[in-house]
Amino acid sequence: MAMNLDDLKYYRKVCETLNVTRASEALGISQPALSYALKRLESEIGEDLLIRKKNGVELTKLGEEFYKRSQKLIIEWENVQNLVTSDNEEAKGEYSIGIHPSVALYCLDKIMPKLTNKFPNIDFKLVHGLSREMTEKVIGWEVDFGIVVNPVRYPDLVIKELCRDVVTVFYKPGCAKKLIFDPDLAQSQDILRRFKMDKEMLNGKIVSRNLEVITQLVGKGLGYGVLPSRVADQVKGLKALRGAPLFNDKICLVYRPEKHRHKISQEILELIKTTKV
Predict the structure, then answer these.
(1) Which CATH number fits domain 5-82: 1.20.1560.10, 3.40.50.300, 3.40.120.10, 1.10.10.10?
(2) Is 3.40.190.290 the CATH classification of the domain at 164-247?
């Protein structure tokens, strides 16, 4: 089989959008070129991967299975083609890092300068989302490394603790009687379950799924916010509420070891592990 790496990447984008037109726009290629690449890929495999419909596409059973395995194929292919170096050759290629935006704000200013200085010709792609989503992307071969909070255990996942943090309730003296929090975070759910606050101090809530927004609102005196200490420290004048519940966080590097047998990968891992964040 003489598969083309770009064809695999194009196929994955079509699977993600389930629409050839939207996929071609996202990829920056013409729709006919994308359609031809899909046909070429199906010809190499010898079976249909997609069912074409008027309003999009649907994956065949083989197409679903091929989609699941295609990312690993892409990773292995890129490891061979782009990351093979010799003693007289500088490292090249791309690595992706999955990280929650709030964690990125206090970690990457320490990690990225070291990575870019040591590997000037390697590109780094940052992928943002909830820590559990980033962990799933590492497990699913979608990103190379994750820097995440309280990762779940998984048989093929290496977890290395980088630092710790504490989540609690923060406020600005004289603030409004609102509780501001992200309901999607396990830390918020746990603290709210244990949080006993005088009704005279609290008469409502503000919900946001962005910790930076919550931090800014608390900093403006709009209420009491459930925040990680490292995030709250970014705004002057915020105080931890005495007696409020505490939730201990572990910020960890996560990766699949079978994906990082290459020398450059090992050096990147070691650099991240030894950086104080």
Answers:
(1) 1.10.10.10
(2) yes
In this prediction the pTM is 0.68
> DSSP characters for the chain?
----HHHHHHHHHHHHHS-HHHHHHHHTS-HHHHHHHHHHHHHHHTS--EEEETTEEEE-HHHHHHHHHHHHHHHHHHHHHHS---TTS---EEEEEEE-HHHHHHHHHHHHHHHHHH-TTEEEEEEES-HHHHHHHHHTTSSSEEEEESPPP-TT-EEEEEEEEEEEEEE-TT--S-EEE-TT-HHHHHHHHH----TTT---EEE-S-HHHHHHHHHTTS-EEEEEHHHHTTSTT-EEPTT---EEEEEEEEE-GGG--SHHHHHHHHHHHHS--
Q: Name the packing angle between helices 20-27 and 31-45 (round to 10°).
A: 110
The dotted CATH code for 93-163+251-274 is 3.40.190.10
Q: What confidence tens digit (pLDDT) does each residue in 174-183 have? A: 999 999 999 9
Residue 78's pLDDT is 62
Per-residue pLDDT reduced to its tens digit, 108-137: 999 999 999 999 989 999 999 999 999 988
